[in-house]
Amino acid sequence: MNASPPVTAPPRPPVRDRLVPDGVRRAVAVVCAVLLAVSVFVLWWAFVDTIRGQGVDELARRGATYGQGQLWQVASPVLDVVSVSFVAVGIATAMAVALLRRRWGLAVQVAVLVAGANLTTEVLKHVVLDRPHLLAGWTGENGLPSGHTTVAASVSAALVLASSRRVRPFVALAGACYTALTGVSTLVGQWHRPSDVVAALCVVGAWSCAVCAVTPRSSLDVVELDGTGRVPRAVGSYVTAVVLLGAAGLAGAVALGALHDVLEAVEDMLGALWAIRRSVQVTAYIGGAFGVVATTCLVFTVILAVRQLTAVSRRTSRRTTG
Known about the structure:
This is PAP2 superfamily protein. The chain is mainly α.
């Protein structure tokens, strides 16, 4: 009795590499970093260096006095967390996560991100930028960008970069929530104006994208390609992006509507903000808070997208089928 010949599997078609070229990915990160960095100076020009912008920001600050007693009970503990020790613990945690994943270069990246963002904020606020006194009375020294928001956002962004590809979207969502809460809390306590907080978010976003643009090989994710040579769809990233962008759109719509109403109110009363009715101050305050939420969601969406894009290694494994 003759043995049947062994059955051999048909040869598999060659798998084509469909990853985005490395140069394009880095270029996208650089462009995002530049746009966010430029946004900081645009914000300063619009809300600090013009009388109308100062008027809107000052109304938002004064509007925080309404309901402040109850809100401060929530805001105060949030702001108390932010400190030098918090930065140290945040950097150590992000570096530990990177080292546990054996991403040696990434440990350096997250340290550079946090240190660079916070140093940039201090230099911009105290050395580079100033606050001309364009309104009647004393309205305080320059507070743009916000230091507390920079600390919260930079530590959150560092954890996003350090996390694994599957966990990263959820870390980004949690980081955005915490950062937004910190930013709004600075408004509640009248520590900062809305433009200060938004500028801090742009500083952190710029540093995050800049760090991603120079991601070394030792910091890359190892992604298993599917049978067609594509990177599998990151469902968590898509869901997180939709949630953050949706929240940014809703909050941004409220903020822009409030900004329109407040601009109409201050058009003929820039020299006497104290005379503007209480409802306009509250509108400016609420609009500023929603603007902070919208910007936080948008910036963390960009950070997540740029990190996912630049962290894919060309030395990926191919998933076999059958």
